[in-house]
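Q: Convert this sequence to structure tokens.
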Amino acid sequence: MDVDPWAVVLRHSLWYLLCWSHTRQTQRVLRVDRIVGVEVRPETFTPPPDLDALRTVEDHFSQGWKYPVEVLVDATAADVSRWIPRSLGRMEPTDDGRTRISASTNEPDWYARQLAVMEAPFHVVRSPELQRSVAALGRSLIRAGRASTR
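A:
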């Protein structure tokens, strides 16, 4: 793979190399402990001047999975970013003061549990798999909240 490294990022005790792939003409994130060979070349490179390496790596982790996700949260992006990690999805403010989360996941049940920590109502706009998982989690929480009959 022919890549130019831009930055090294430490995230959850693992080192990642953020780089540009000349072969695929796209950004790549490589786990450093999985790299098996390196060839040093004389060429130099310049990372983009506004590069936020950690944010770019976290955005990368939230995309490319099996089930697309789109969620609207009835709260500002600043509030949402305090409740859930950036790696859960791209958070964009909407014109009406809410926040749109765009992502993908292989595990809708896990994703539903992550969303449940938010302190504001949210609506699953896209992803029937996530809608089913959120509904199932809601039913489970309601059952857990009922008084015991024993």
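The beta strands are 3-11, 14-21, 26-31, 67-73, 90-93, 99-105, 122-126.
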